[in-house]
Amino acid sequence: MSASEPTTQPAAEGRAGWAWRPYALTLPALILLAAVIGYPLLTIVLRSLSEPEWGVQNYVWFFGAPINLTVLQRTFAISAWVTLVCVVCAYPYAYLMTAVGPRVRLMLVLCVLIPFWVSGVVRTLSWVILLQDSGVINSLLRSVGFSGVRLIRTQTGVVIGMAQVLLPFMILPLYSVMKGIDLRLMRAAESLGARPSRAFFTVYLPLSLPGVYAGAMIVFILALGFYITPALLGGPRSTMLSTLVQNQVLSLLQWGRGGAMGVVLLVATFVLLALAAPVMRSRHREAGRR
Amino acid sequence: MEMKPLTRVLLGLVCLLVAIWLVAPTLVVVPMSFNANKSLAFPPQGFSWQWYQNFATNPEWSTSFLNSLKVASIVAVLATVLGTLAAFGLDRMKARPANLLRMLMLTPMVVPGVVLAIGIYAVYLDTKLVGTLLGFVLAHTILALPFVLIAVSANLEVFDRRLETAAASLGAGALTTFRTVTLPLILPGILSGLLFAFATSFDEIVVSLFITNPYLKTLPVQIFASITRDADPTVAAVGTILLFATTILIGGGMLLLGRERKGRL
């Protein structure tokens, strides 16, 4: 460890010359990251700009064709629906997790985690079985008088399947925030004369919003890039952007166009992440302070 | 908070429905796997073991299962080593570069699967890695790395570094300190990282669908192909086997942990 080693670490650390060592430890992971994530993504960006020739023609094509815009809009709409369904279902569930005893809580946690025990593809298969026209759900609906409801190969079916896969990502952050809410605040509000519903809307709900926001962002971002569930549960009228990308590249061998679509999806994802990051970071800091 | 009985009942009911919605699709494969007919229509008819037999004897299924085991085992070790090293590095860096590098290393979790898949596919076509063991291992390792990083980092955060100083002051070398003090204390994080990495690789489908070829298929690729091709209940049998294997593993782990904790008290 020569003294000429440029170090920013003050000697107070006791091993000033070793400041480069942490960086060396991360190097193998960073090299792999550059080779298997960085380089491929760069390849896609370059292809979107260079195939069949240099220019932005692929992006002009993407934003010029109504069918693409329809799919783009639908991708956002489906993701928004999935997020909404997740929020509505996860909120009472996470709340109950904070309100029950340890035994029931363990049961509730298990119900959230059990879906992870089965491979994602198999879970989607289960939804194919359940949602098909002769499936359980349709039989149930028929027995209560709703006949001819189509679920598989429709947008509704895709939303049901995707929301079930993504629900844990909503429940867990929501629960971690709700767990930290001091319930005495509610009692205080009620002792000051607020009705339970008013206490809930003015005290509890605002305090739980960071959890809703974090969970909703995660679910929405993950939903945007979904591929397997829409591919198996959806039909031609519920195609999402991922399927279009796959189609351009594998079936039509249009690397430029597929690449441009991929870049659009990637940019949308990162813009949303950038929007979400400051809020989540401040929440993290608060949690650290506690 | 005090709730009216009606609110309480309603809340319980809603949560019961959500719980059913979460769990029922996981269990549907179990009755389907004993179907006597070659169909995926619910409810299943009759009873037979033939789909389990098919899984065990049909080379398409057994080979892809073994491939998945092989890939996931290598990935688990590789991702755990790389991820643990990186977690240590980040832990000992100054906050600003550490946060930046951590964010960079977590990107595989948020990049949309298909975008990553076409990128890797493009590179693999050029480098002749499509349908190779090395190709699968590299792609899965980078996807598994964030999970190891998160698990080990969480453990390092609560690890008291003064223990290392204490060991060093008592004359232990860097390697001895690591082996006898640091490693045993962060082992839970490393082990859960290993488990997550294995599961990530074993379950990976989107990138795998692109970089697969007839010579090398993993189990999820085979399942996907089977679902899109015909209604073969063998997939249900595979799903049931995986469900039971995971249940036994997790249940066993919980029992062991519980016993250990009790033993200590």
UniProtKB/TrEMBL annotation, chain B:
Keywords, comma-separated and alphabetical: Cell inner membrane, Cell membrane, Membrane, Transmembrane, Transmembrane helix, Transport
Keyword Ubl conjugation among UniProt keywords: no
Location(s), subcellular: Cell inner membrane; Cell membrane
Record field: transmembrane: 65-88, 100-124, 130-152, 185-211, 235-257
Pfam families linked to this entry: BPD_transp_1
Gene3D superfamilies xref list: MetI-like
Domain ABC transmembrane type-1: 65-253
Membrane topology according to the record: Multi-pass membrane protein
Keyword Transmembrane helix attributed: yes
Superkingdom to which the source organism belongs: Bacteria
Annotated Gene Ontology cellular component terms: plasma membrane
Primary residence: membrane
Gene Ontology process terms (BP): transmembrane transport
PANTHER family, per database record: INNER MEMBRANE ABC TRANSPORTER PERMEASE PROTEIN YDCV (PTHR43357)
Family note: Belongs to the binding-protein-dependent transport system permease family.
Record's protein name: ABC transporter, permease protein
Source organism per UniProt: Mesorhizobium amorphae CCNWGS0123
